[in-house]
């Protein structure tokens, strides 16, 4: 016990979150520090079709980098996908497609755990417990729900509203400490930290009794970094590149071939001025800023470096180099995805093996959580 008083259920939500920095639960430490819990990376991608350059640069490319230094768990979150209607056949196909994208991008499913969420029942079980920890007021602030539900909020599924609780469960079921995501998931990660904190506080005594002084859950850290944490639409630099944009020209799909990539970048919206020579000159020029960010991410440099080299260039010349970079990186990944998807049985075997390994971590954790909550367990 840390001597903190027990947080009342229904107490002020922000109070529950406020002391988050005052106490370091197990495993929540910064990179490089020796802690009793190993650092563990978890992230998820929804199988909702049209994986695009934003998914790749904002998330999947980072997943690949992290496997050099961390134990990683990468999940195809099919249970998140059904918070909006999914055609069953398309859901199956898209689940295999995301798995193929992970592997084609360079994730090694023998070393890291790659699986689909619905095969591990702990996700749903922990999500229910978290639905009883999270406060309505917290979820009411989630901007993604507001955007996705739009005007027909009464008609949105209950799952779409409770979605961030399931996301917190995904991460915390494995007591993961680091979560690579794009900028749009920042608020959900903060909520996951608030849930972990409130659980640890509400159940402080039984956590300690179970041998987890200071709380059972780490406070997971978002890893949102690099020049492409928010890739924008190629047709409108103020809108996020998205799987659901009705215009296919708005995004580069991970399965696009060289011709499609070239055409989409050539047609990408720009403004009439040449490129500035430093980032300050991108102010108020969202399309230019987006292309410079993509260029930096693909070339492994920064917007400053890109503009130092290309300042003063016309977009027509800049786009030629960008096309070459994009084709060199995305082209082979798309081709490998197609190859992998031609053998769906092999992809399913990879997911099954991954799920079995995921359960080895999830099941004992879930048992401890049930014990902490006071459920009678075997
Ligand atoms: P989703 O497609 O919503 O499941 O997103 C999967 C991952 O891709 C998450 O980490 C997102 O934050 C990230 N992501 C999605 N769209 C973009 C974008 N336009 N730019 C950068 N990252 C993105
Ligand atoms: N909500 C994330 C998205 O839409 C996907 C996701 C589900 C996720 N569970 C997760 C990401 C856990 C990171 C960790 O992109």
Written account of the structure:
This protein is mostly helical. It is built from 15 helices and 5 strands. It has helices at residues 13-17, 53-66, 78-81, 88-105, 122-131, 136-140, 143-149, 158-172, 186-202, 204-209, 258-267, 286-299, 303-310, 315-341, 344-373, and strands spanning 40-45, 71-76, 113-116, 178-180, 221-223. Helix 8 (158-172) crosses helix 9 (186-202) and helix 12 (286-299) crosses helix 14 (315-341). It is globular. The chain binds adenosine monophosphate and tryptophan. Residues 42-44, 46, 77, 80, 167, 170-171, 179, 181, 185, 188 line the site of tryptophan.
Strand content: 5-15%
CATH fold field value of the largest domain: Rossmann fold
Counted up, domains total: 2
* Amount of helix: 40-55%
Distance between the first and last residues' Cα: 26 Å
For the record, what CATH class of the largest domain applies? Alpha Beta
As laid out across the biggest beta sheet, the strand order is 1-2-3
Low-confidence stretches: 1-36
Our Rg estimate from Cα atoms comes to 22 Å
- Helix/strand-derived category reads mainly alpha
Spell the H/E element sequence. HEHEHHEHHHHEHHEHHHHH
CATH superfamily of the largest domain: HUPs
Largest sheet report:
3 strands, parallel
Number of helices: 15
Choose one word for the global shape. globular
Q: Write down how many β-strands occur, each being a DSSP E stretch of 2 or more residues.
A: 5
Report the average pLDDT across residues. 91
Query: Architecture of the largest domain, according to CATH?
Result: 3-Layer(aba) Sandwich
| Bound small-molecule species | adenosine monophosphate, tryptophan
